[in-house]
Design a protein that fits this description.
Blueprint lengths: L4 H11 L16 H19 L3 H6 L3 E2 L4 E2 L2 H12 L18 H35 L2 H13 L2 E6 L15 E4 L5 E11 L8 E10 L10 E6 L1 E3 L5 E4 L2 E6 L10 E6 L5 E5 L6 H37 L22 H33 L3 H37 L10 H8 L9 H10 L8 H17 L3 H30 L1 H4 L3 H29 L4 H21 L3 H9 L4 H4 L6
Parallel strand pairs: 3-6, 4-6
Antiparallel strand pairs: 1-2, 4-5, 5-11, 5-12, 6-7, 7-12, 8-9, 10-11
Helix pairs in contact: 2-4, 2-5, 4-5, 5-6, 5-7, 5-8, 7-8, 7-9, 7-10, 8-9, 8-15, 8-16, 9-10, 9-11, 9-12, 9-15, 11-15, 12-13, 12-15, 13-15, 13-16, 13-17, 15-16, 15-17
């Protein structure tokens, strides 16, 4: 099982009411059956073409022989199946060859592929983002030159930001671009950790490269964005000679191995041909579209792997007999499945809270992406965009942290078996360990949240979040079980508000000291955010139970309600200690000196 089918249906049609999108003009030609058929196709393609080689690809990682990169053939077959099913262009307009699929449906489909084989999924994941960016900001001529081949699966795409000397400090990048007589540019520099940066599963690779045009201002205000293909592309879309883009080497990773991680050299000879996207010196602003899309996607990938870890552990715990309950004194009685032991259920409950909470959070964020584009009024679209902007740091980091914990717990539940390669848990953990790192580490996201996002547009996104949570608290007030859960979330929200006010004052007085504990604040905010996500799920569950849900459905809803209870009682209770440190402006980490280590 890749995902819990009932849970995915719950999230899409009860938690998010995705069916209501059919009332929007863009989706007038769709119906619920189209949505369900698309999900079924994604599940089938993921199960038949992605899942079977997940383990094989981990043990047979990409090889560079000095001339070409070799991947196991199943990788190309999976790419072709994904492209043939239309997923590379699924959310684009009918006029562009797309299916006009809602963003949230596309991301639900991607959850299947992530769960099946996240490393192979890395290639289409990056290509979708690259095509989206070209569609949004590149000239019509560049769109016509590159997008048809990208939508068809002939070209793949990457994002090339990081340099050997510069990681997240993009303002210091050294890659340079020199204007050419024909209006194009020649790009010189080196990029590293470029996922999908070289392979032969597609005819061409379209690199989106950040570089500084000679003479541009220093810092982030002087960064431009360029389309730099592996092979030059003629105006009619046909492929020309090899561009001056060379693979300097592959990086060998702990997990996520089948996605090539590359060091690329641009301009070892006469310069790599590049085409300016949009206006000069606005490249980082353009790239943020792909970066933010990728951040939600990273969270979704972490959620999917955490979900897989949970499902494997749950199945094992139900089938593995070992020991007897403490109350049983007869050694001749049959051993019980380990799920009968309370400590195993504790770990499974933690996994369920993290995995299902993470998936719900990521799909909710995807629904905000949808609303920001297709809501009926400009105000509603802007509100969705502002709320999404605020929440994106948590959408990226909370599943990345706690999805990894879910994978870790899976190993623990399997015991010694979980630590062996004969079971999938150890690979799931290794694959998941990348997610807290790429597309902005926890620390980078924390600085973004506390130092920038909270104050954007006068704090509009934060105010919207408080309004949304308050509305859910009011809805829960009239219900028995959710009323108690809401009280605990209200206490957590009050803590968040107090800490936020305190930290904003601290940052205003001393930015370095005030931001030194930003990561703890990010975690605190994330816990409250996911608490709200769980309360919303619990509201639906309790109402369904009150309405007399059928027996099988009753177990599903009772599981939702009880997991929300666990989350409020075990996870939110930890906020008080963190809050005390933050409100006090604890300086232990800030004051530690280099020479004392």
């Amino acid at each position: 099982m890749l995902l819990n089918e009932r849970d995915l249906q719950f999230l899409l049609y009860e938690f998010l009411d995705t069916q209501a999108l059919l009332g929007r003009e863009r989706y007038a030609e769709h119906d619920r059956s189209v949505f369900d058929a698309t999900l079924a196709t994604a599940r089938q393609v993921a199960a038949e073409f992605f899942a079977p080689h997940n383990h094989k690809a981990d043990h047979n990682e990409p090889i560079f022989d000095g001339e070409r990169v070799s991947l196991i053939p199943e990788t190309g077959q999976a790419w072709a199946a994904f492209a043939d099913a239309g997923f590379l262009s699924a959310h684009h307009d009918f006029a562009d060859g797309g299916l006009q699929l809602p963003e949230v449906l596309l991301r639900a489909c991607m959850a299947y592929f992530n769960a099946a084989n996240i490393a192979t999924t890395g290639y289409p994941f990056l290509s979708i983002g690259a095509a989206n960016l070209i569609k949004s900001f590149a000239s019509r001529e560049l769109q016509q030159r590159f997008l048809p081949a990208m939508f068809a699966g002939r070209f793949s795409g990457t994002m090339a930001l990081t340099e050997p000397g510069q990681g997240s400090a993009l303002g210091d990048l050294r890659t340079r671009a020199v204007p050419a007589d024909d209006g194009s540019y020649r790009v010189f520099g080196q990029k590293m950790f470029i996922s999908g940066g070289d392979h032969e599963i597609t005819e061409n690779i379209v690199h989106l490269v950040l570089a500084r045009i000679e003479g541009a201002p220093a810092g982030v205000k002087g960064i431009s964005l360029f389309v730099v293909p592996k092979y030059n592309v003629n105006a009619d879309g046909s492929i020309g000679p090899r561009n001056d883009v060379a693979l300097a080497g592959l990086l060998h990773k702990m997990g996520y191995r089948n996605t090539t991680s590359t060091v690329l050299s641009f301009g070892e000879r006469d310069g790599a041909v590049g085409y300016l996207v949009g206006e000069a010196n606005k490249g980082l602003a353009y790239m943020f579209q792909m970066m933010n899309e990728a951040r939600i996607g990273v969270g979704l990938g972490a959620a999917s792997l955490g979900y897989q870890s949970y499902l494997h552990a749950l199945n094992y715990a139900r089938e593995r007999p070992q020991g007897r309950l403490a109350s049983c004194k007869d050694p001749l009685t049959r051993q019980v499945p380990i799920i009968e032991h309370a400590d195993v259920r504790r770990m499974l409950l933690m996994q369920k809270a993290y995995a299902e909470g993470s998936l719900a959070l990521c799909l909710y964020a995807s629904s905000l992406v949808e609303d920001a584009h297709t809501e009926s009024t400009e105000q509603a679209r802007d509100d969705a965009a502002q709320l999404l902007d605020l929440l994106t740091p948590m959408v990226k980091t909370w599943p990345s942290r706690y999805g990894l914990v879910a994978s870790d717990l899976g190993i623990q539940i399997l015991g010694g078996a979980g630590y062996t390669r004969e079971y999938p848990l150890e690979q799931l953990y290794r694959d998941n360990r990348l997610n807290p790192i790429h597309e902005g580490t926890e620390g980078i996201q924390a600085l973004d949240l506390l130092g920038r996002k909270l104050g954007l547009k006068g704090g509009r996104g934060y105010a919207l979040f408080l309004e949304q949570v308050s509305h859910s608290l009011q809805q829960a007030g009239g219900l028995n079980e959710c009323g108690a859960l809401a009280q605990r979330l209200a206490e957590g929200l009050a803590i968040l508000k107090e800490v936020t006010t305190s930290l904003q004052q601290q940052v205003a007085e001393d930015a370095d000291l005030g931001l030194s504990n930003a990561t703890a604040y990010l975690d605190l905010f994330g816990r409250v955010l996911v608490g709200w996500v769980w309360l919303r799920q619990a509201l639906i569950a309790e109402r369904a139970l009150l309405d007399g849900a059928a027996e099988l459905e009753s177990d599903f809803y009772r599981g939702k309600l009880h997991t929300a209870k666990y989350y409020m009682e075990w996870e939110l209770v930890q906020l008080q200690g963190i809050a005390q440190l933050l409100c006090a402006g604890n300086s232990a980490c800030h004051d530690m000196q280099n020479r004392w280590f």
